[in-house]
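**User:** I keep going back and forth on a fold encoding question. It is easy to fool oneself when nobody else works the same problem. Could you pick a protein and write out its sequence and tokenised fold? Could you put it straight underneath, so I can go through it closely?

**Assistant:**
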Amino acid sequence: MSPPPYPDLLNFLLDAVCVVDEKGTFLSITGACEQIFGYKPEELIGRQMLDLVYPPDRKKTLGAVGRLMQGQLQYDFENRYMRKDGRIVYLMWSARWYKDKKIRVAVARDITDRKRTHGEQAAAQPGALSRWRLSGSPPCLTPPDSAPILLSRQDYIVLATLMSKRQAVSRQEIVEALGHDFENYDQRRLDTQMRRLRRKVENACGLRLPISTLRGVGYRFYEDVEVQD
């Protein structure tokens, strides 16, 4: 196999592309390895990926790995890693398991600056860390005592609609808030979005999103929440 024509360009990637075996041992790392982890790629080859995970995040990381090994793609999974210099970094991952090759390929992006900015803003609000908090600029959901989770605009609209009331919110209200005609809207799309949103939150922080499904009615957000534009 011939080498890539422009190998030096890999050093300019914002992400680190990690390949590990089924036991989680680093096989190769390209891209922003040293910028993110503080290690040169050759220092990590042969090491266990989990050894670098910040200890409080290891349980949820193993849960994500388990889902991945069962064939479920992992998008936007967030956890914290320990750099070589001892600093903690927040990473966002997308990963896939290649069963035939017995390797996992994961792409990591450093989101530390965004996380810390939102975390400091949340900490400045009395009692904010003990309850859910939804912010619109940029769209993010901060679970109790956890780092903010970045949201798509669509996810933000769904949550903002649910959190606007203490009682149940109908499916029609949510669909119309999204800018669609309820009569012509495929209800399965809404169900799929709610499942994906629940999974995203659980993957990111290990907490269950407090939304109950009310059959034949809609949904209800049932915990204390603060909403900011």
